[in-house]
Amino acid sequence: MVQKYQSPVRIYKYPFELVMAAYEKRFPTCPQIPVFLGSEVLRESRSPDGAIHVVERSCRLRVEAPRLLRKIAGVEHVVFVQRNVLNWRERTLLIEAHNETFASRVVVNENCSYTVHPENEEWTCFEQSASLDIRSFFGFESALEKIAMKQYTANVKRGKEVIEHYLNELISQGTSHIPRWTPAPVREEDARSQAGPRDAGSLQADRPGSTPGPAPETVLTEGDKLDADYIQRYLGHLTPVQESCLIRLRHWLQETHKGKIPKDEHILRFLRARDFHLDKAREMLCQSLSWRKQHQVDLLLQTWQPPALLEEFYAGGWHYQDIDGRPLYILRLGHMDTKGLMKAVGEETLLKHVLSVNEEGQKRCEGNTKQFGRPISSWTCLVDLEGLNMRHLWRPGVKALLRMIEVVEDNYPETLGRLLIVRAPRVFPVLWTLISPFINENTRQKFLIYSGSNYQGPGGLVDYLDKEVIPDFLGGECVCNVPEGGLVPKSLYLMEEEQEHTDQLRQWRETYQSASVLRGAPHEVAVEILEGESVITWDFDILRGDVVFSLYHSKQMPQSGRQEPGARAGGQLMDKGWVLGVDYSRVEAPLVCREGESIQGSHVTRWPGIYLLQWQMHSPPGNAACSLPGVEDVLTALHSPGPKCKLLYYYEVLASEDFRGSMSSLESCTSGFSQLSATTSSSSGQSHSSPLVSR
Questions:
Q1: Which of 2, 307, 446, 593 has the smallest number of Cβ neighbours within 10 A?
Q2: Per-residue DSSP letters for 461-525?
Q3: Which residues fall in a coiled-coil region (predicted)?
């Protein structure tokens, strides 16, 4: 496998000529780089006018590797060949290097360039890239790869220090300026010879695309430079390289993009999302612009009118700004019936509403930038989770949420400045485990999570919001007009024909399994848990009849479970001879589920083994049956005319390491989540299930 390295652009705030003088002091030896044992010139040439200087060197580097590896390889140093093309006219130095030692086993290629900064001709840019391809190395390929990349990274860092050392040495010796190269007067008899074929180095230096430095499109005129006041007023602090990346990307869009050119603030978000890697930011931005054109997102705020149902039951809205001037959006997710909204308006309508919120957020950022006189490019979101329970783990709802996260992260990067999550209940870690892997790491670092009343007082909301804007439902004095949400009446749900049109029923049927429960013949699912503290989650809808749901644990797999893993519709997995309390134990209290109800729950396992999810018909209290039916019950069920109960179900196991990893990421947040973590951990073996109706 080829390993690649690309360094960030390094800036020396010195003229190119002075940096070249410092660079030459590294040869033939350099005490500041201990692994560099020395070099000798193999070939050297100059163009007739002296503008092009080509040097080819053989460089010896000491091998910093374990003694055993050096002994097996039979070498104490390796040889690299370096070719430098210095172009004084263009003020560029191009460096190519490759290894000679073990060239048949290991291929190392390196390219470096020193160029003039595109925005300040008195500064010098340095870029470096390398690739490593280890084809075979005495069975030590993996070890060599790690050693090589570690050593190379260390040498890159050391290289910057060495150049700065020699620059300071030159200045201390009185050399702070070196005149630029100018062509010598050409005699008439030499003119013809100089008009002939140029030195190979000159051709290499002038060849389009031969330098990893700024491309031809990045040569900027004075009018293209960003005004310092404009940067400070609308964009915020930018380094010279960041400013250069912004100008280059805008230039490229102006030359190639057909349509509206995004504002600098918009382009800058994509650059920041890709750490100012120009090619990656360009690709991300182009995909987003195509998406916006395809879905006519630029017209969304003018054309989108949310349905009245959304305005009433979608518990979110804008509310002043935070302490830094960012627009503040409040979402009372715990009070929102996500399943009801999806069944009433459909996933696409919800997605369009979320997009309109993001479009409005960008518009409000521009307004606050003008109002406060400083750049504001992101907003703050305050999420209240009071009322969050297992109902919110309805799988189509979770999948829709993940899709919305993906769309927003791809097309609205770096727009979320801070996410404040308050009143997080103990079920929140389960939801977080499901969604956090799909959230960008940079975005996750902006999350602040509070359980209970930890958001009150120092370290809480007052650190991020003025007291005057803290909502009344969180103990503040400000009246908040965000809708309170609530359950969506079933009468407002889309008809099945409309849901089919939106492909929702098809998607939901792909997610869930169906089962029939007969009297005396429960439906059971066997789940094998290999380690404790895993989390079993379930989600099921009762379509017909009333059932009793239970969860059991056994150390052994039922015989029928071995023959046919998973569940058998209308069948029973438990061995008929098993005795409750001896062969298996109940780990969840029986839960009566009525027709039309939707149940979501979870269980943090204490022990490895087999866990059995069981649904059986509900009997009147006077005729309560034991968990294992008798022969007569089974015979009755088999001869009954049809199923008495029907359900759709889904279950999932969150591995112990994933759940603990999620908890660790939460505990590392600047929040009071440690108390929530302790509560959740101490509830092992207890259910998070809820009998709440989530139709």
A1: 2
A2: GGGTS-GGGSBGGGT-SB---S---BPPPGGGSPPHHHHHHTTHHHHHHHH-EEEEEBTTB-EEE
A3: none
